[in-house]
Amino acid sequence: RSTDMVKLGSFCTVFSATEVLENIRHGKKIEDIVKGVFFSVIRRVVEMDAMTANVVMTGGVVAHNLYIVRMMEDLIERPIRVPEKPQLTGAIGAALYAMSAASESVTLNPMEEPNG
User: What fold does the segment set 13-105 form as a domain?
Assistant: First the structure.
């Protein structure tokens, strides 16, 4: 619903919050402020490193707000992959890691001593 993105310049969270409050006081529309906050975060992520390989976005924010994905695609000028249930990828990764770690230390031969 945003018609005009509010530009936020601060990299510091405290200063960004101050900018947001200032824009609210000046009567800027909330959706324009939110769009500016999203863009500010996305810009920081993109500036961290060159994205030369495939990009995949995961997590609850992506699961519940695909607009962030679209904004990032526009900024990096490439498609971004999003898993079917992006909010579960961290838990799935942790479970796979735990399963792998457990299988390395568990003996399936009943004739051997435990952990030996």
Answer: Nucleotidyltransferase; domain 5 (3.30.420)
